[in-house]
Write a structure and sequence with these properties.
Layout (H helix, E strand, L loop, with lengths): L1 H18 L5 E2 L17 E5 L8 E5 L6 E4 L3 E16 L2 E4 L2 E3 L1 H5 L6 E5 L2 E2 L3 H14 L3 E7 L2 E7 L2 E3 L4 E3 L2 E17 L4 E4 L15 E15 L8 E6 L6 E2 L2 E3 L2 E5 L13 E3 L8 E8 L5 E11 L9 E5 L2 H7 L10 E4 L2 E10 L2 E9 H8 L18 H7 L7
Parallel strand pairs: 21-26
Antiparallel strand pairs: 1-2, 2-3, 4-14, 4-21, 5-8, 5-14, 5-16, 6-7, 8-9, 8-10, 10-11, 12-13, 14-15, 15-20, 16-17, 16-18, 19-20, 22-23, 22-25, 23-24, 24-27, 25-26, 26-27
Amino acid sequence: MQKPKQLAVFVSLLFLLLFSAGNAQQAGKLISPNAAGQELVSSGRVEFDGFGLFPLKNVAVKPKETIYLVPGGHSIGVLVRSEGVMVVGFSPIIIAADQVVYPAKEAGFKAGDMILAIDGAKAESDDQVRELIAKSSRDKDEVLFQVNRGGKTIEIKVKPEYCTETKSRRIGLFVRDNTGGVGTLTYFHPETSVYGALGHVITNGKSAEPISISQGRILTAQIDEIHAGTAGTPGEKVGSFIEDTDFGSVEINNTCGIYGKLSAPLENPLFPVPLAAAYSHQISVGPAKILTVVAGQEIQAYDIAILRLLPGRSDGKNMIIEITDKSLLAKTGGIIQGMSGSPIIQNNRIIGAVTHVFVNDPSRGYGVFIENMLKESGILPEATETLGNLPQGFSFANFIANFPFNGGL
């Protein structure tokens, strides 16, 4: 009969812990946003007093720095070279008039594998891989590959077969050493020249594994055509890279975007003055805008609605958004490929970026908090937490399982 009483006490304590911020006091000063909505301006300690019944928690609080960013919205071409060479498909080896074989596939290769080395020689480009395979095929019966698959290094041996069509020994692989595409720039940080873009990680497209980048760059792009999205069929921006406009490096490819440095300051014609970046607790459900390009290089602002906030997620899906702008819906059908990274503006702050589309409802999709992008890029320290939000990875199940009840539940 003791366990129900213990559970009731635990639930009461948990309720008070989560909702007792009503009497938060700082040693020496009251901490609260001012009328202009600015962030905490002093440091000290906050005591949560459980509605005056008993002290619950006394924690140190550090002021949050206001970070100013130039909003993006610019269409960019992204070119990255991976560490290793990616397997993208298989080709048949014709060994007789009516017989074909696939040596690499039969040996265990899979699309998305990254070839790191061939017979001990480092694989750095698709041309080099072809040359190494041809050389090894002439000298030995089997070729040894070091391959990265899902973050693990494995070895695969392949026996080349003589192709009657090409008059050479081959293993039947299609490979690629670089990836390119059109996306959207999210922000530029004037103090460090660091930018953020895309709002999501670049993967190899086959196994959805993140690409480990050896080098990369971004270029100016223009949008030539729009393929509107429909339920079940994602749309896309069709763009082209503008030659001799290499204006930034790609140095980081992470969950919430790509990051690097621009070679020159970025300007946004819609926002001549940088905007403050919002912390997650400053974002609210309701109207907002996105900045993106749907024709040429002209950045335009479009209305959206933030339907739901998902704090605590670390996968880049921190809010559910809906396109409400009739002109954008008529043009694109909603969120389309190439729109990833489009900055989201609310209350004259940069709050995040567009990341994913709901395939069955292209008017809706996900957005990532700008706070998470700033952490990944190194502008905002990883240890920064938002007062009032549960920490990332928090689990009520784990909390309950580890709560020190006498005798358990």
